[in-house]
Amino acid sequence: PGRVDAALSVWVMLGRPLLDALAGADERETTRASVLSRKVTSTIGISDIILVRRDGDGIEPLASGIWPMQAIAQADGFVVVPAQSEGYPAGTTVEVRSLP
């Protein structure tokens, strides 16, 4: 990937799980359930990775698609929106994964 955000997204979705599998790691990636403070939209047919940060008791979406460096620096984790979903409305409980 030519962009930093693209390289990071490839790492969190492919590189990290592959390295864990090759290393024989038994532990799965830790996730935590959190409530979205704003809605997240996605295009059907494309899996999206949404950067999020903690916001009080919930999480606030920061960026999807192209991630600005500021959003990467502020992010506490990310949420994966599956390809068959149009996103999540505000108030939905989602699984937040940690960034490396």
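(the above was protein one; protein two follows)
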Amino acid sequence: MISPSEQVATCLSQSRSFTTALGDGESLVWQRWGEGSSEFRPLVLLHGGFGSWNHWLANLPALMAQRQVWTLDLPGLGASGDMPEPHTTQHFAEVIWHGLGELLGPEAHFDLAGFSFGAVIGGDVAALAGQRCERFTMIGAAGFGELHVQVSLLPIPSSDTPTAEANEIHRENLCRLMLAKSESVDEMAVHLHADNLARFRFRSRRLAGSNDLAEVLPDIKARLVGVWGSDDATAGGLASIEKRAEMLRAVQTDAEFHILPGVGHWAMYEAPDLVNAILLEERSAQ
């Protein structure tokens, strides 16, 4: 049987790696998946807090079959270098926007999707991009101030915690925060979560709890798309999710909004086919 680490390595081998400047001699690490077709815009994916590109692992095979897909490890996470000061949403976005200009070219149009903390950063990237960002999808987005729920978690295991004990902690925290169904907390989910926690240096909760995404929505020219799992632990329930839909539609009356029944915060992992259909524009708005 192929182990999760071998599966991740096989997946990563299908990408091509790039780096762009981060500052202080550090680099952002990007991955390009597939070549796509000239009739489709590139799709840029931003992962969540304490994560890496692998938050999108379940989605990449289907997405790169149709589109050129770009992922990256956000500053201070995964294989990328540490984020220089100031640690603000705007500064994160400026660093990423500079990298996109270098990788895609100064005139390229693209679609953007961000998960959780990645959606907070993505909002400012989309605003900087203006008309060049044509579609911005927010998945379980943070950055809505008091609407965002900070979930109580077990302390992260130390490096000398026995693997079996550490994995039990990871499973519990995945159940509390990331995934709604117990069967979704599989061996791969535990492996990805453990790997990301072993590499993180930047704690994103302060920016996740900010109102930064809500405040930048009026400045975004891209078509707005909201995606939330009905059982997202960070969302505060269906009434709170609907408030987010109202906020998007107050900016764009025809903004798309999708609520995925029985799905948790890490919607791309728990319901990859549904999320892929939205990202590939195969599913109509609710």
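Reviewer note on protein two: Strands lie at 15-23, 26-33, 43-46, 69-73, 110-115, 133-139, 223-229, 256-260.
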